Amino acid sequence: MRRHLSQSELSIARFAGLLYLAIIVFGISSEVALRGPLIDLTNAESTAKAILTALGRFRLSIAFDLIMALADTGLAVLLFILFRPVAPTLALAAMIFRLVQSVIIASNLMNLQSAVLLISAGQDITVLAPGQAEAMATLFLNLHGHGYDLGLVFFGLNSLMTGALIWRSGFVPKVLGAGIAAAGIVYLIGSALRFFVPEFSVVFAPAYGVPAITETAFCLWLLAAGWASRRPHLASA
């Protein structure tokens, strides 16, 4: 069990923290601040009008999600480098699952683009009945939500592996490992509910506070890796 990180590893940890911060900021901004307020899946017409009124804002949300996916790809590689000495096979598996999630998130953006094309004259809709384009656009928006949860299945498994790596590392506080693993369980349960018991998804929604807290805490530890590594007693917390 290691207690310290080398200077090169500290640099990797800090850069990983910056990428993690970008993921958090761009991800929350995209869904909560930019796109979320425009979408009402129960009303296709009002959703289409809201998006067209704020088309630039909606497209910016797509750009933010793309940046998030790119940052997530880089973070997957950096965390693999950081935890490879702890357990090479487990670190490799964690990286692969996180990369799969990144690919799903990036490709899933085509659902958002499809919705835009349908309602912004970017696609020939003359053969569609009145209101059908708006309904189809809402379907694509709904598919994007489901696609995101599909990505979280892989991220949930990644979080369980990352939690185990943190726990075994000796240079990251064990409480963070337990928290990241708990976040993985939340992601897996939330995605399962979304696909198989959607009526319980709203009830389960507050549980996502666990990933929000633990991932932010891990991000902050990475950013302050130099401080944390100089206090080896934290690793046994």
TrEMBL record:
<feature type="transmembrane region" description="Helical">
    <location>
        <begin position="12"/>
        <end position="29"/>
    </location>
</feature>
<feature type="transmembrane region" description="Helical">
    <location>
        <begin position="175"/>
        <end position="197"/>
    </location>
</feature>
<feature type="transmembrane region" description="Helical">
    <location>
        <begin position="203"/>
        <end position="224"/>
    </location>
</feature>
<feature type="transmembrane region" description="Helical">
    <location>
        <begin position="90"/>
        <end position="110"/>
    </location>
</feature>
<keyword id="KW-0472">Membrane</keyword>
<protein>
    <submittedName>
        <fullName>DUF4386 domain-containing protein</fullName>
    </submittedName>
</protein>
<feature type="transmembrane region" description="Helical">
    <location>
        <begin position="150"/>
        <end position="168"/>
    </location>
</feature>
<dbReference type="Pfam" id="PF14329">
    <property type="entry name" value="DUF4386"/>
</dbReference>
<dbReference type="InterPro" id="IPR025495">
    <property type="entry name" value="DUF4386"/>
</dbReference>
<keyword id="KW-0812">Transmembrane</keyword>
<keyword id="KW-1133">Transmembrane helix</keyword>
<feature type="transmembrane region" description="Helical">
    <location>
        <begin position="62"/>
        <end position="83"/>
    </location>
</feature>
